[in-house]
Amino acid sequence: MIGLMTSINSYAQDNDYNYETSKKEITTMMLQQANDWSNGNIEAFMEGYIKSDSLKFVGSNGLTYGWKNTLENYKKGYPTKEHTGTLTFNLLAFDQLAVTVFLVIGEFHLKRTVGDADGMFSIILKRIDGEWKIIADHSS
Q1: Domain CATH number, residue 42
Q2: Number of domains present in the structure of the chain
Q3: Are residues 46 and 70 in contact, defined by beta-carbon separation less than 8 angstroms?
Q4: Which strand (E) or helix (H) includes residue 123?
């Protein structure tokens, strides 16, 4: 019984450590995304997403599958620096769904000369090859 309790306690400590470390890594990645977007570099912003046809993006135009299609939609919707503006995130909740999977809920704010835009998002991230990648994004 002592061995079982030690294993449970060790697992809980690892999860606590992984949670805080993962939260910091995800926050850092998203800050980089905001900087890339604010510099008008949508391709660099997209590095935060899994480069796969399995990527799911839900927005005002419905469901989009795939990294390339999501990139093209961003380019169409934000064709110039005036449209991309300056992006900031307010990260509201981090929920660890599995050791390598997180749900993050937050707000986005775009300060732009063509009119500001604000909204909410929920993203699912997965740790792949040592990096956090967005595998599903629902933004509205």
Answers
A1: 3.10.450.50
A2: 1
A3: yes
A4: strand 117-128
| Residues 49 and 133: beta-carbon distance below 8 Å | yes
Check: CB of residue 71 under 8 Å from CB of residue 43: yes
Stated pTM of the model = 0.87
CB 44 within 8 A of CB 34: no
3-state secondary structure of 89: strand
The Cα–Cα gap between 87 and 138 comes to: 17
Give pLDDT tens digits for 2-43: 444 444 444 444 445 589 999 999 999 999 999 999 999 999
Please give the Cα distance from 72 to 60 (Å, whole number). 15
